[in-house]
Amino acid sequence: MSPEPAFLLHRRPYRETSALVDLLTLDHGRVRAVAHGGQRPGSKSRQRLQPFTPLFVTWQGSRDLKRLTLMESRGQTALLAGEGLLCGLYANEIATRLLPLELPAPDVFAFYTALLEALPAPAERALALRRYEWALLEALEATPQFTTPEGSVLDPQLRYRFDAPNRAFMPAERGLDGRTLRYIEQGDWQHEGLANALKAVMRAALAPHLGTTVLRSRELMLDLARRRHRP
């Protein structure tokens, strides 16, 4: 196979000196593979297998677990710190948890690449993360339908909550107003005041697919927020 662009999503020890890795690849989506020498101190494999580093990879194997045969750098590692780093870890964690193995997801790869470019800039971070989350939902065919469960158009004057089983919105006393949801449906995500609503919609839509296990990256974000507000 030709070398394929990829990013490391997750790495853990495997046997004595190898690593078990999850990769986000351009054409094959999430690929799980063994990187021989990936845990050996000083090895080139270990040096290259770092989060947020653009890679070229090849692999062999016909089953779910592949064997990496080539791993080369194709660019500079994104330099992330603080909240930007935690957002990057979150992006890796939800892709690892959500994407089925070898489900082609070129849009996820594209928006992940754009996200890494945006994360160092606080003003660009949130919107890039929302577009990445939306790409993941599209890959899973799980994007929200901006109607009621019966298929009715949302009333701008009413409030709604997300109904996960139907991927739709039900009228509710508390929730997001129909006008805001219409802006989100139209893709007008830079409209003033949409940031919190966008975050709420994405979180509600992703929740059924993430399961009940708490995201480690989200715990770290909450811990960072608590430390910032500590007297």
UniProtKB/TrEMBL annotation:
The keyword Manganese does not apply. Keywords: DNA damage, DNA recombination, DNA repair. SUPFAM superfamilies: Nucleic acid-binding proteins (SSF50249). Residues 4-72 form the DNA replication/recombination mediator RecO N-terminal domain. The keyword Ion transport does not apply. Pfam families: RecO_C (PF02565), RecO_N (PF11967). Involved in DNA repair and RecF pathway recombination. Belongs to the RecO family. This is DNA repair protein RecO. It comes from Vreelandella boliviensis LC1.
